[in-house]
Each structure stands twice: as C-alpha cells, then as structure tokens.
Design goal:
The chain is mainly beta. Helix content is about 10%, strand content about 40%. It has three helices and 17 strands.
C-alpha cells in the first residue's frame, strides 16, 4: 500500500508524527498537507481527462467537469458513443446511447442520491461542519498492512463513509461507502493513491473501486487535471426539446442534444501526466 504514495514525495516536508487523536486534528493536518484552505477554496472549476479500465482490460475515456458549488458533468466515451451524466445542483439527467437510448432521461431516485452525495465540489472533509457533515475519529485500522487513522463521515443524506488516513501524510488512502439502495445496504470501497501537485494543491490521480470485498475492481486514472478553466453553466443545463410548427400543421421536434466542447477546447489527450477524483468526495 505504501507504494500508492510514491507520487507524494513532495509532501515529505509536511510528514508529521502519528499523534493526532481527534477528527479536528486529523482533518486540519490533512488540509495543511495538501496545500491549505486558501488554495483549496481558490479553485472554482476543474476539468479532468481520465482513463477508465474495467475487467479484462476494457478501457474507456472520461471527461469530467466540476464547478462550484455543486455542478458536475461526466462524459463517458465508448466505441464512438458518448454517454453523459449531469447534475446542476438541482436537476439530474443522463444520456446512455449504449442502452439504445438517445434521448435525455432524468436520473432515478437512487442515481440522484449518489450524484448529490458526490457533487459537492470539495472533499467531504473540507469545511465539513459548515456543510452539516459529521466527522468522527473511530480509532486505528490497517490498509494492506499500513496503519491508518479511521474517520467516520456521515453525510446529510444519511450515506456513511469511512476514511482511512495515512499516518505519515494525513491523506486518504482508502474510502469505504455505505448507502441504502432500494431498501438494502450496499457497501463499496475505493483505494486512492498517486498524489500529485496541481496548482499548489495535492490531488490523488488513481482510484480503484468496487464492491467491498470483491476482487472485481475498476480503475480510474487522471491523465490531465485543469484548474479554474472557463466552464459555462450551460454545460450542466438539461437540453431543451423545442417544437416547431411546419407548413401543413406538422409538428417537428428539435432535440438539443448536448455536444462535447469544440476540438480546440478539448483537453490534451497526449501522454498522461501520470488525485475529489475530482477532488475526492
């Protein structure tokens, strides 16, 4: 597990002895380690170019866009098709062409809950008290033989996360999530690593996720992270369906399907620089 922190060599100067015993102390050292609150809050937008790797080496490209306070858009490119999932702070929608669906659909209740849990621009530990998030220190644990502080994080939605914080650098190395879906409790876990500095703040760039205890995991690697890039609010708006009356009284629907940015504005997909994902939430 210690190898996942190789990209965080620049943080060695901030390494502190494992003496923190309260949630406030651990979180304060985490914030200091990754760059400080001032630099974190100076970030208003993030655009991510990511690679998704599933079972059997299956790969796809992801473009993620996030804007304060809670707007998020994800474009998933697969075999020439682009699926879109968006939350604008109030409304959530998606397009899933690989399901044979080209029209815009509303997110289901469970999908909306998951989006709301993950849409906050900052990680759940940042300004958690002001955001009505409860954080508790629940003792020590281990992650693949590495000691870790364990924090219980309860979101306003009722979703519970357990953050496993490295005892040298005070950054998350694993997050376990418990949420209720259709009346049943579902547990997942994400291994976090490869911290890199971008714009004066350290972000993880590698995420390995799946059901808790399952050997089947998917990996998301951030290849490029851009901070404070222009992202118009229209990128998060649900496409409108316009109706036009044609000669003879015929009604024609003009569906304004979302488009990816023009080529000149697309992130550079050249050799990876390899990081809430998005800043982790």
């Amino acid at each position: 597990m210690r190898k996942v922190l190789l990209g965080i060599v620049g943080l060695m100067f901030f390494a502190l002895p494992a003496t923190a015993q309260t949630a406030d102390e651990i979180v304060a050292k985490y914030i200091k380690t990754i760059g400080g609150m001032e630099k974190i809050q100076a970030i208003k937008t993030v655009r991510l170019t990511e690679k998704f790797t599933g079972g059997g080496g299956f790969e796809a490209a992801i473009i993620g866009e996030n804007k304060r306070p809670n707007k998020t858009r994800e474009e998933f490119s697969l075999q020439g098709m682009i699926g879109v999932t968006v939350y604008d702070g109030k409304d959530g929608w998606k397009i899933e062409p690989w399901q044979g669906k080209k029209d815009v659909e509303s997110l289901s209740d469970e999908e909306m809950k998951a989006m709301i849990d993950g849409a906050d621009f900052d990680d759940s530990l940042i300004n958690y008290k002001a955001r009505n998030i409860k954080v508790e220190y629940v003792g020590m644990d281990t992650v693949d033989g590495t000691d870790a502080f364990k924090l219980k994080v309860t979101l306003p939605s009722g979703t519970t996360k357990y953050y496993f914080m490295d005892t040298d650098y005070y950054v998350p190395i694993k997050i376990e999530t418990k949420r209720t879906i259709r009346g049943a409790e579902v547990e997942s876990e994400t291994i976090i690593g490869d911290y890199k500095e971008v714009g004066g703040v350290y972000f993880p760039h590698s995420f390995e996720s799946g059901a808790k205890g399952s050997p089947n995991k998917v990996t998301v690697t951030i290849e490029k992270m851009e901070l404070n890039v222009p992202i118009d609010d229209s990128r998060f708006a649900r496409p409108m369906i316009k109706t036009q009356t044609q000669p003879g009284g015929k009604i024609e629907e003009d569906k304004d399907i979302p488009k990816t940015p023009e080529k000149k504005n697309e992130p550079d997909k050249s050799k990876p620089s390899t990081g809430v994902k998005k800043p982790v939430s």
